[in-house]
Design brief:
321 residues, alpha+beta, 4-stranded antiparallel β-sheet, 8 helices, 16% strand, binds zinc ion
Length: 321
């Protein structure tokens, strides 16, 4: 189909048909020549691709002539300049952003360092405190029970750091009571130890008062021996001298020595604190039923229902059963 020039209405040439404005309007060579000079087909194409028909008509109506070669060159250069400018601005902006980011990172790093230093300082203070406290306890000839140290001069207890508890120094005045814990058992009923218990029971009173125990002799094996110390705030401290099944012997004897020493120390502290000594003795003796039978028998002797000889015979029988 033959295209018509939008300006003059004449048919456009074959070559002109390839060139149209941005809004797809055709202009003939004659009309172009009235506005443009010094151009080739490439210059025209470049101009057309960047302009609408109205742009051409503006120039046409104003009778303006332009050197298209020059114009295109100028446009190219200005867009080149513009691009360069844009790039420069972008570069600068990026640089500013980078600097700000760097600055921020530096600040954050400094802040982290300050925090780290602070933590290290606190740790050192704590370490120094622990060290000087330990030295003080040593200088005051503190008494060591399990892991607890008792400073008799400043009247304080040092509890070293454990998995569950922090390093702590507790004044004696915080102690409100304690519970002795004594657990054991015998494997062999005929064991001499068992008879010692029975003897004690018959004599009336073993096991009811701490300090009157038999030094572990009531059990062939001691399983647990120590104290739970109750503090004002409801927490407690522990000192254990035996934590697992231990057969009678030097170890048990030594443990009982410590046990009695800490009990009497605690009795003194609690009395000084003005608290009633409220202690419960926790005891487990699998031979209780046997002891009770013998005790009952002893009652029969006391009430003169059976003779001492009959009692001894029955007791022997029970113990050897
Ligand atoms: Zn025309």
């Amino acid at each position: 189909m033959v295209k018509k020039c939008e300006v003059c209405g004449n048919n456009v040439g074959v070559l002109d048909q390839k060139i149209k404005t941005k809004d797809k309007k055709y202009v003939c060579e004659n009309c172009y020549d009235k506005v443009f000079e010094n151009y080739n087909i490439l210059d025209l194409t470049n101009w057309e691709q960047a302009h609408n028909f109205d742009d051409f008509m503006g120039l046409f109506n104003d009778g303006i002539t332009i050197d298209l070669k020059k114009e295109n060159k100028k446009g190219k250069e200005s867009s080149k300049k513009e691009r360069a400018n844009k790039e420069a601005i972008m570069l600068e902006e990026n640089q500013v952003k980078r600097e700000a980011f760097k600055e921020k990172r530096k600040d954050e790093k400094a802040e982290r360092q300050i925090k780290k230093d602070e933590i290290r300082k606190q740790k050192e203070i704590k370490k120094d405190h622990i060290k000087s406290t330990k030295e003080k306890f040593k200088n005051h000839d503190a008494l060591l029970f399990d892991r607890l140290s008792f400073d008799p001069v400043d009247k304080e207890i040092m509890q070293p750091k454990t998995f569950t508890k922090p390093f702590e120094v507790i004044p004696y005045s915080d102690i409100v009571g304690y519970t002795p814990i004594e657990r054991g058992h015998s494997k062999n009923k005929k064991h001499g130890i068992t008879r010692a218990v029975v003897g004690g029971v018959l004599a009336g009173g073993v096991g009811s008062i701490v300090g009157a125990g038999t030094g572990g002799k009531q059990f062939e094996y001691t399983d647990k021996l120590g104290v739970n110390i109750a503090l004002k705030d409801g927490s407690f401290l522990e000192a254990f001298f035996i934590k697992q099944e231990t057969k009678e012997g030097m170890m048990v004897k030594a443990a009982y020595d410590n046990f009695y020493r800490i009990c009497s120390l605690l009795d003194g502290i609690i009395a000084e604190n003005g608290h009633e000594t409220s202690q419960k003795v926790e005891m487990t003796n699998p031979n209780d039923s046997l002891a009770k039978q013998i005790r009952d028998l002893k009652e029969l002797v006391d009430d003169e229902i059976i003779t001492q000889e009959e009692f001894e015979a029955k007791k022997k029988q029970l113990l050897e059963a």
